[in-house]
């Protein structure tokens, strides 16, 4: 008899359609600050220097070095790195708030590297939204007018923009505060206004640059949950910058780890934890509770002769912590099944190895 164990609800993930056009596509992106910055990306010799060597030789800092990635529609893509690794510069290059030194940024199929000022203004008004650490609210305007501000700039009528602002104020949990002024709100609530303002114009992609860094830890956790909830509800594509690994793991469908301007690894949270690309990433993820992040996909094994194959079924994306009870309670191995196909099995051994921290790098 096959027992179906209920699979916990999954986050709304990126589009599964491999043919869908990425919302943002970055190719060979460089940003070099300093004299004659242009020559750095085009010189084999200079490209290979360390940050220190480059500074000594040329007086330049390469903040972003040859970065490539695609962000799929509906994906939450996190860029993570320590201070100075180049995250802010990278995200500012995506909207050309900072001019890249070399490489391509393609937005919904359009290479925006060559977009003129009018086109950029249009994109920033209608397609992109940014949420920064400093909320940048207008102190003499009420919450609802702050939220409606971008719509006003677009020329939307007063009635329409207040209606839309009211909708998003409610969406971010600020109903009742429409008429408050920013200084009457806590930091967390002000950041909710920032979120509402970013969502009001129904952008195609939201860019977050360390939006919660200045908030107290508890409020910060609340706001992270809020982003997860909003993403579930509105399914927007998001690019999120953070230096906090737990925030990255909580929010990101995929995470790009930066160090000294370069990509060290780009993958799902469970891939970073299960198969760190190098010692740097390994060190980063070593304190992550593995059972909270690793999925059954990472710990399953192929069935062998003699394994009973009539145990309960779970999906490959269920995290170990959520599967533990079902696996330990079953008297047969749990089958990891996707679309009717048996991918592998998981028994007490595999679960206990993770719980006891004996699993090491998995691949
Ligand atoms: N305008 C600038 N001129 C010269 N160097 C710069 C400039 N902006 C950034 N840098 C340098 O580029 C590197 C990357 O900076 P960036 O602010 O992008 O890093 P970050 O990862 O966002 O760090 P933080 O979290 O501290 O903001 C740093 O070495 C920084 O000193």
TrEMBL record:
Residues 49-285 form the ABC transporter domain. Transmembrane segments: none annotated. Belongs to the ABC transporter superfamily. Residues 1-22 are annotated as: Disordered. It comes from Streptomyces nigra. SUPFAM superfamilies: P-loop containing nucleoside triphosphate hydrolases (SSF52540). GO terms for molecular function: ATP binding. This is Glycine betaine/L-proline ABC transporter ATP-binding protein. It comes from the Bacteria. NCBIfam families: proV (TIGR01186). Keywords: ATP-binding, Nucleotide-binding, Transport. The keyword ATP-binding applies. InterPro entries: AAA+_ATPase (IPR003593), ABC_osmolyte_uptake_ATP-bind (IPR051921), ABC_transporter-like_ATP-bd (IPR003439), ABC_transporter-like_CS (IPR017871), Gly-betaine_transp_ATP-bd (IPR005892), P-loop_NTPase (IPR027417). Pfam families: ABC_tran (PF00005).
């Amino acid at each position: 008899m096959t027992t179906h164990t209920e699979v916990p609800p999954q986050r709304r993930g990126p589009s599964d359609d491999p043919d869908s056009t990425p919302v943002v596509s970055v190719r060979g992106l460089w940003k070099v600050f300093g004299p004659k910055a242009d020559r750095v990306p085009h010189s084999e010799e200079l490209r290979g220097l360390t940050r220190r060597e480059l500074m000594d030789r040329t007086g330049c800092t390469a903040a972003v070095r040859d970065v490539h990635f695609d962000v799929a529609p509906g994906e939450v893509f996190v860029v993570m790195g320590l201070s100075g690794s180049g995250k802010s510069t990278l995200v500012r290059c995506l909207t050309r708030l900072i001019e890249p030194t070399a490489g391509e940024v393609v937005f919904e199929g359009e290479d925006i590297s060559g977009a003129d000022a009018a086109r950029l203004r249009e994109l920033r008004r209608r397609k992109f939204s940014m949420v920064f650490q400093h909320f940048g609210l207008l102190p003499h305007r009420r919450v609802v007018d702050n939220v409606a501000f971008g719509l006003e700039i677009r020329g939307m009528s007063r009635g329409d923009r207040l209606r839309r602002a009211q909708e998003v104020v409610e969406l971010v949990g600020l109903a009742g505060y429409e008429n408050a002024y920013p200084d009457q709100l806590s930091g967390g609530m002000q950041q909710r206004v920032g979120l509402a303002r970013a969502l009001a114009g129904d952008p195609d992609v939201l860019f977050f640059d360390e939006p919660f860094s200045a908030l107290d830890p508890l409020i910060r956790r609340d706001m992270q949950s809020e982003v997860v909830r909003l993403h579930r509800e509105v399914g927007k594509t998001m690019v999120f910058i953070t230096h906090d690994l737990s925030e990255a793991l909580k929010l990101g469908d995929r995470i790009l780890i930066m160090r000294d301007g370069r990509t060290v690894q780009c993958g799902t949270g469970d891939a970073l934890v299960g198969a760190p690309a190098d010692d740097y990433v390994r060190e980063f993820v070593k304190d992550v509770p593995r059972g909270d992040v690793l999925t059954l996909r990472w710990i399953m094994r192929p069935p062998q002769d003699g394994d009973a194959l009539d145990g309960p079924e779970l999906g490959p994306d269920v995290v170990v912590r959520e599967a533990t009870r079902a696996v330990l309670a079953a008297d047969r191995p749990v089958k990891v099944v996707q679309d009717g196909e048996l991918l592998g099995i998981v028994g007490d051994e595999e679960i206990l190895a993770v719980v006891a921290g004996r699993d090491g790098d998995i691949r």
